[in-house]
Ethanolamine utilization protein EutN (Sporanaerobium hydrogeniformans), 455 residues
Amino acid sequence: MDIGRVVGSIWATKKDDNMNGQKLLVLKMLLERGKEKPELVVAADIIGAGVGDLVLVVRGGAARYAVHNPNCPIDAAIVGIVDSIEVEDND
Amino acid sequence: MDIGRVVGSIWATKKDDNMNGQKLLVLKMLLERGKEKPELVVAADIIGAGVGDLVLVVRGGAARYAVHNPNCPIDAAIVGIVDSIEVEDND
Amino acid sequence: MDIGRVVGSIWATKKDDNMNGQKLLVLKMLLERGKEKPELVVAADIIGAGVGDLVLVVRGGAARYAVHNPNCPIDAAIVGIVDSIEVEDND
Amino acid sequence: MDIGRVVGSIWATKKDDNMNGQKLLVLKMLLERGKEKPELVVAADIIGAGVGDLVLVVRGGAARYAVHNPNCPIDAAIVGIVDSIEVEDND
Amino acid sequence: MDIGRVVGSIWATKKDDNMNGQKLLVLKMLLERGKEKPELVVAADIIGAGVGDLVLVVRGGAARYAVHNPNCPIDAAIVGIVDSIEVEDND
């Protein structure tokens, strides 16, 4: 899984029927501690994350299991809200 | 999911039978707000997107669910037309 | 899907039994119009592409559907020969 | 598979029910011998790895097989603790 | 598929039960002709490749089909030993 930060929301009225009711959040993924990649990633959320939260993001086929709907055409989902990260890094 | 912009169309007469009737659009993916990656990505579309639209793009196995044909050999599909993106970004 | 150009062929006598009879072509993927990535990609082809052709390439699990053999251990396949690309690009 | 080094742990109280009980470790992936990529990757572990261990990491759908729970929404798992690597490299 | 060169072996005593008996080789992937990416990739091999061999590598879900064990938690496998590559490249 990757670590991202919720930075906003996205709206799409015309969309796949299986995506109706899906809450979609806009994320920036962590590049390293204190830095983020510039790309905006859109992930489905059923955990209840909000703007500013640090979140665990799953990509690929596993995202469909995260929303408990194997027919939902998504490839990224939030699977946890990060409470804390403890990294022992001595480089 | 990633965010892309529809920039054109592509035609392929000789193709896999399962792709017949699939509308294929050419996209550029957003690198960050106001910038796009140079690569051209081809995605299937059953939502009705057109040139200039900002779209939500799903990659990998989920794309087959987006066209409701699990045998269709595609790895990218448009799953929504973006109405608006709201990003709270204070870096 | 991505767009590539067929640049050659590859031979492998010792290979997985499920790959016997598979025609394998060597591709370079388009970086942007007029530029190609340096990496050589190997894709299965049942469409009938040849050296010089611009082709639509599918990656990942969908490639197995492209060769109509879900047990074939491939992750890239040619699904169409590109006739034309029309890109409206005003940057 | 890729080779990573365990650098820490991560806690997420609010998470997908299928992730309850999963031990999650934070990794840095090897770029080349003696160098690591800056990104932090989060992987599930049922092997018993600890901080400092060099580990084999599997990505994508295979990660769900590594935790023996095909419904677990994860995309990275530790599948082995590396004892030794022997590389004959003469460039 | 990608093209790699076998550069060594890796040992992991503590590992997933489904990986017992799997021969694991360490590869460097070709960046372009004559150049290799620095990353070490670990792939399962049932073809019989050895150090120095140029090999065809499959990534993702297809790797499990290459070892004929759909429960094996691997994401890279050698599916062929390359005899020759013929590239017509006139840039």
